[in-house]
Amino acid sequence: MISVRAALDTVLASVARVGPEQISIAQACGRVLARALVANRTVPPFDNCAMDGFAVRAADVAAATPTAPVRLRLLETVPAGSLASHAVVPGTAVQVMTGSAVPAGADAVVRVEDTQVGDGWVAVFRAPRPGEHIRRAGEDLRDGEVVWPAGRLLRPADIGVLASLGMPSITVFRRPRVSVLATGNELVSLGEPIEGRKIANSNAYALAAAVREAGGEACLLGIVPDDLESSLRPFEAALECSDVVLSTGGVSMGNFDLVRQVLARLGVQELFWKVRQKPGKPLSFGTRGRTLVFALPGNPVSALVCFYLYVRPALLSVSGAKQIFSPVVEGEAEEPIEGSEGLTDFVRCQLRVHAGRFSLRSSGSQSSGVLRSLSLADALAILPESCAQVEAGTAIRALWLAAPPVQEPPF
Ligand code: AMP
Ligand code: MG
Asked: At 109, is the secondary structure helix, strand, or coil?
């Protein structure tokens, strides 16, 4: 048995990144940038006005006050998107809108609120600083500058930045293909009756959802019986078409736990089996060529916890992402939390936030068959091997799974 850290290091050291593809920026949110993005133009492309008002020469109105306004001759009105036909010369002003190009000769904008317009003139009641309410060309992005390095997970504002550069498409890493196989004679597919001593194949659906959430393309390959010969073909099919293979069940000490044998027969090199952790101890991990193979335990909680601990960072790394880990938060245990001696425990917990500080308590039964307590958990409290119990009031680290419920509006 190896430690959780050694298991994670082994997994990450085995990662081979997928190749790039070109996609529309409309599809790019949540995808990983495959090349550093270099700005191909300046944004904004020209000096423009940040307020509706009047473009002036600051020196002309330096003495303006509410009681002693300065009158300027009004040359014209420029809507955003148009160019002024006059330059602002001493004693004059051009009416501008937010986004209008700053007319030649002007070096400040006075807000409409600080003026009064008459027929062919404008009175200015406040002296602007030179440059006031002017957005300079290149203030956002400069031509040739590196906006982001490769490996960035693209977010909505990033899509806006790409569009502001006029880029219709972008090179991202393709989504990793992840095959999911469930093993077990007791399993039935969704849609079939759950009768006798059968149970639903819940793992495949939970894992496929987790794969998609992590940016992978999930491919459900169905249920494989606990039988070596009939397992070979579906496992081979999975290995052939995937960047990552996930199986569940058949990997612990039972008489029908044959997955490791199947994988060995198909040329998968096992790098570890069994991790000093709870839940998820029987995890097996190996590779065949560039394909990562996770034989996850069958218990629904064990399978998903192993996903969060090992598969998710691996999948993000295969996707080319630089940021592959979930945050760890520290909070106070609201009650004693039980672990086990010699194993790293991942305890399903609810997080509560008060005054910006976290506290944790168990989200329910910690049995590895009870999936509901994982669905209610916001975090997995981490009890290291040397720690078998945490007293109430102790600070404890926890792996973030989901945002905790919040009752109050933020402002
Ligand atoms: P195993 O690791 O195959 O011994 O399975 C451990 C436990 O997980 C057993 O109770 C199985 O019935 C259950 N189990 C295995 N595979 C699945 C699955 N795909 N969906 C739900 N439960 C499963
Ligand atoms: Mg089984």
From this structure: strand
Pocket residue to mutate for ligand 1, from 180, 188, 198, 199, most atoms within 8 A of Cβ: 199
Atom of ligand 1 nearest to the CA of 252: 2
Q: Where are the beta strands (DSSP E) in 67-162?
A: 70-78, 92-96, 108-111, 115-117, 121-124, 134-135, 146-148
- How high is the pLDDT of residue 286? 98
Block residue for tokens 């009004």: 74
**280 close to ligand 1 (CB < 6 Angstrom):** no
User: 317 with 269: CB under 8 angstroms?
Assistant: no
Quote the tokens at residue 229.
């010969």
C-alpha to C-alpha distances, 136 to 62, 85, 104, 132, 139, nearest whole angstrom = 21, 20, 14, 10, 5
Q: Which residues pair with 116 in a beta bridge?
A: 123
Return all residues near 224 (Cβ < 8 A) that are at least 6 apart: 181, 182, 183, 230, 231, 234, 235, 247
Closest atom of ligand 1 to CA, residue 282:
2
Q: What does the alpha-carbon distance between residue 32 and residue 173 come to, in Å, rounded to a whole number?
A: 6
Q: pLDDT of 219-244, one tens digit each?
A: 999 999 999 999 999 999 999 999 99
Q: Which residue is closest in CA terms to ligand 1's atom 23?
A: 298
Q: Quick one: pLDDT at residue 319?
A: 98
Predicted TM-score of the model (pTM): 0.95
Of 213, 195, 211, which Cα lies nearest the Cα of 203?
Answer: 211
* Rg from Cα positions in the chain: 31
